[in-house]
Amino acid sequence: MWCLVVPIGYFFAILVQSSNTFIFTKISFWLMLFYALVVGVSWTLIGTILGFTLSPVLAMCLSGGISFAWYALIVAIPPGPIDRVTGKFLVCCSYGEVLNSQAIFLAMLGIASAAFIITGLCLVWKLSRFTGMLLLCLGIISMAMTFSIGKSMNPTGSAPRDPSEMKCRDNICAWPEIPDSYFENNVLALDELRKVAPESWNSYINNPILWGSGSRDSLTFVGLNNVDGVLGAFVDQAASAQLIREGKSICGIPAQELGIIMTSLPWPPEQVVELSVVHERLEDNYCPQRR
Question: Where do the TM regions start and end (predicted)?
Fold first, then answer.
C-alpha cells in the first residue's frame, strides 16, 4: 500500500490546484500519474530491500541518504540529461509548452533503473547472487540507455503545445487557461487600434492575433488587465515591425537586431498613432542615456 501514497498524493494535488477539469483528459496527466506510481513502487522496493538486508537504523539512514541525494543533490546540477533521469521537470510557466511524453518515460526508466541497481547490489551481497547480478545488469543497462536518450532532448524536457487547443474569438486566439477578461481587453484594444493606426498598418493588424506568436507580420496576444495597456503593447509591436521594415535604428542599434520590443506603457485611445512619436517613446524607454 505504501507504493500508492505518491500517485494518490499527486492526484489529489492536481485536483485541488487545478480549476479546469479538462486536465484529466490530457495524456500528460495520466503519464505523470503512472510516473508517480512507478516512483512509489521503486522507493517501496528500495526501502524493503534495504530493510531486509541491513539493520533497521542503518536501513533508515541509508534510505534517507539515497532519497536526499536523488531529489536534492543530483537535481542541483545544472540542466542536462540528468534532469530527465531524476524527474526534474523545469517546465512551469509557459502556456505554450507541455511536458514531453518522452521525458516522462525517461524519468520512469531512471527511477526504476536506480531501484534495480540498489536491489541488485543488496541481493548480491546478502541473498541471491544470480538474481542480484541479473537485476544489477538490467539496472545499469537501462540507466545507460536513459542517459543516452536524454542527451537528445532539450534542457527542460518540454515540447510545443498543440496550437489547435487554443480558443479563438474575433480573430484573437489564446490558450483556454487565459481569463476571458484578457480576451475582452485584446478585442477592445484591437478595435481602438484600427481607429487610430495609420493605414499602412492595416494588413499587419488584420492578421490573426495568437498567443506568443508576435512577429513582423502579426501582433501577439497581450495578457494585461487594462485596455490602454494592451493598446500600448499593440502600438509598440506594430511600430517595431515598421521600423524593422524601413531599416531604422533604436538607440543607434538597428531595429532588425532588437526585433519586436515593447515599453509596457499604455497608449491613450484618443491619440492618433504617429510612427515618429512611437519611435521616440521606444528610445525613451530603451536608451540608457535618456534616463
Answer: 28-50, 57-77, 104-125, 132-150
**pTM beyond 0.85:** no
Buried b or exposed e, range 33-55, using 16+ CB within 10 angstroms = bebbbbbbbbbbbbbbbbeebbe
φ and ψ at residue 100, rounded to 5 degrees: -70, 125
Q: Residue 219 is which amino acid?
A: L
Cell of 278: 512611437
Angle at 90 (CA atoms; ends 89, 92), nearest 5 degrees: 110
Q: 153-174, pLDDT tens digit by residue?
A: 776 777 888 888 888 888 898 8
Quick: pLDDT tens for 234-254.
999 999 989 998 989 888 888
| 66 contacts: CB under 8 Å, gap ≥ 6 | 46, 118
Please state, in angstroms and as integers, the Cα–Cα distance from residue 83 to each residue in 148, 152, 198, 233, following that order: 13, 12, 50, 36
- Written as nine digits, the cell of 159 is 515540447
